[in-house]
UniProtKB/TrEMBL annotation:
This is Aldehyde dehydrogenase. Keywords: Oxidoreductase. The keyword Oxidoreductase applies. Belongs to the aldehyde dehydrogenase family. GO terms for molecular function: oxidoreductase activity, acting on the aldehyde or oxo group of donors, NAD or NADP as acceptor. The active site is at E248. It holds the Pfam family Aldedh. CDD domains: ALDH_DhaS.
Length: 489
């Protein structure tokens, strides 16, 4: 089996302990991964702390930091075929998407590389005589970045790129499920020329790696993507070091379709939102809210399209739909479907392992029709290829059902009525609203949600500010003695 290394303080090393990574398409181990423990984490964080004070890093101008990020983007772009193959092998994500997504991720490093020397301070026309004042921005310190297996190179980029542009140092923990692409990505960080300790990349399990990282006293900032339950542990872990937190969590995103929507375009967008990436996406449009007048026609088209999706090996370019990443996830999906059917949901299509794909973690594209908004499939996150459908009567009913969730990450809205689109968009409780489209990203736009979908935003120009502190500087310009030292000026 292939053996991967962790990257700590500018060096590649085998882990003192290892674990097997499973190929989701075959259910067989294919690689050994280093299992980082508390000692590895401590070495990585202390290396990041030293690098944060080292002139090799702190002595670089912001422009020079930006050029390093541009260099990293170029290397990433050149490595797309190899990294895509690794991600597909280790996670089951189809090769046609891993290639396209990794190529686009380079734009995130270029975007923040361009922002690095544009984070200006501010001169303040202060209301004190004989005094000048200004604000300057400084990097926040050591960043703990934690990403899940799905879209991991993208989710790493939205943390690494702004953090490095700001001048921080980063310890990145890859998921124990499918960490191969990020461990391989470490070689391009090294080749780009970042000084030792500025970026370390390791992987391990929550109790002996994640906990040590998020509770480390030298960590000033935690950027996490994952589930709400793990996020609660991270919040508790960070209580002692009072690290600044951003949490990008799960979703139960509604897709609202009004009677005037273009059904052909809408069907394609819905399919993309729930069945692309085998539904394993935090922004998956897993709740379809359709007006009763168009529900039968829309459901027929969706059902027929779902049945024609090309299921196959993820490393074949013609495949549209590969396996789930883990058997654990498949068991969760089967259980949630069973509970939903018992609660009154109707199975429209799918719901089982596709014939001929008994080997591997495959599961059919599935559609459930519900009458009760409290049905489990409408309340709980599948993180898989299951679309739950609920009819609505009017605009007010649609908005009420869309917002009837503790999550609030993404949403979709389909209508030709511009006035309605503006009204409904304003009332949807979600950090992202896609109108007449779905599942689009850009480094220029913020990404994040409300409620159990997390805290803070990633992406966009403001994200870099979350990796910086503001320092207020007061300069007295008078040579005269202070009049009364016992009175605050």
């Amino acid at each position: 089996m292939r053996e991967f290394e962790q990257y700590i303080d500018g060096r590649f090393e085998k882990g003192q302990a290892t674990f097997e990574s499973i190929d989701p398409a075959t259910q067989k181990p294919w690689a050994l991964m280093p299992r980082a423990g508390a000692q590895d984490v401590d070495r990585a964080v202390r290396a990041a702390w030293r690098a944060f004070a080292d002139p090799q890093w702190t002595g670089l101008t912001a422009t020079q930091r930006g050029k390093l990020l541009f260099r990293l983007a170029d290397l990433l772009e050149q490595a797309v075929p190899d990294l895509a193959e690794l991600e597909t092998r280790d996670t089951g994500k189809i090769i046609r998407e891993t290639r396209a997504q990794i190529a686009y991720i380079a734009e995130y490093y270029r975007y923040y590389g361009g922002l690095a020397d544009k984070m200006d301070g501010r001169y303040v026309a202060i209301d004190k005589a004989d005094t000048e004042a200004y604000q300057q921005r400084e990097p926040i310190g050591v960043v703990a970045a934690i990403v899940p297996w799905n879209s991991q190179l993208f989710l790493a980029a939205v943390k690494l790129a702004p953090a490095l542009a700001a001048g921080c140092t980063v310890v990145l923990k890859a998921s124990e499920d499918g960490p191969a692409p990020l461990l391989a990505f470490a070689r391009f960080v090294h080749e780009a020329g970042f000084p030792p300790g500025v970026v370390s990349i390791l992987t391990g399990f929550g109790e002996d790696c994640g906990k040590a990282l998020t509770s480390h006293p030298l960590v000033s900032r935690i950027a996490f993507t994952g589930g709400p339950e793990t996020a609660r542990h991270i919040v508790r872990n960070s209580a002692d070091n009072l690290a600044y937190l951003t949490l990008e969590l799960g979703g139960k995103s509604p897709v609202v379709v009004f009677p005037d929507a273009d059904l052909d375009s809408t069907v394609n967008a819905i399919i993309s939102g729930i069945f692309a990436a085998t539904g394993q996406s935090c922004v998956a449009g897993s709740r379809l809210l359709a007006h009763r007048d168009i529900l039968p026609a829309l459901l027929d088209r969706l059902s027929e399209r779902a049945k024609t999706i090309r299921i196959g090996p993820p490393d074949v370019m013609q495949t549209e739909f590969g396996p789930l990443a883990t058997d654990r996830q498949r068991r969760h999906i089967v259980d949630l479907i069973a509970r939903s059917l018992a609660a009154g949901a109707t199975l429209v299509t799918g719901g089982q392992v596709p014939p001929g794909f008994e080997t591997g973690f495959y599961f059919e594209p599935t559609i459930l029709l519900c009458d009760d908004p409290q049905t489990p499939c409408l309340r709980e996150e599948f993180f898989g290829p299951v679309l739950s459908v609920l009819p609505f009567e009017d605009e007010a009913d649609a908005i009420a059902n869309a917002n009837d969730t503790p999550f609030g990450l993404a949403s979709g809205l389909f209508t030709r009525d511009l006035a309605r689109a503006k009204r409904v968009t304003a009332r949807l409780r979600a950090g992202i609203v896609w109108v007449n489209t779905y599942r689009m990203i850009s480094p220029l736009m913020p990404f994040g949600g409300f409620g159990l979908s997390g805290l803070g935003r990633e992406g966009g120009s403001e994200a870099i500010l979350d990796y910086m502190r503001t320092k207020s500087v007061w300069v007295r310009t008078s040579d005269e003695p202070i009049a009364d030292p016992f009175v605050m000026r």
